[in-house]
Amino acid sequence: MQQQSTVWSRSAHTSQVDVQLNSTMRLISGTLHSTALPWLPVLSNIEPPALPRKAATDKLVEKIVKHDSWPILPDILNPPLLQLTSRKPLWLDLQPVDIKSRWRHNWKSAQVVNSHLVCVTPQSGNQVSTSLGNSGLC
Prior knowledge:
The chain has a domain at 6-97. Mean pLDDT is 76; it is low at 121-126. Helix content is 43%, strand content 5%. It contains 6 helices and 3 strands, in the order H-H-H-H-H-H-E-E-E. The relative contact order is 0.14. It is mostly helical and 138 residues long.
């Protein structure tokens, strides 16, 4: 999936892409349409779509900052004023994100029925133990 594109990260049509990604996660995990959206990434062992997009944007910004001669650098370091409120320029959110820790934080703060079935343990490495199997939440 090319969902990690920085173009999709700022698009007004991201929700349409997310609908297709959710459908794919339902297919992978074998869940029904009534399954709550926060459960889909956990059950299919795929990061929530917004997090890889943010990580791709962070990687692009890091690459831009490393190249002093690129003409876009002043726009990143000294961003212009917003002229259109509907736009989402990437310099509005320059804080880098760690996908795993943000995913874990989002899961802990989500109001999901039966979220206690997923136990997040630091010693489990890349996986989270559930009563049904393992997930990539941690």
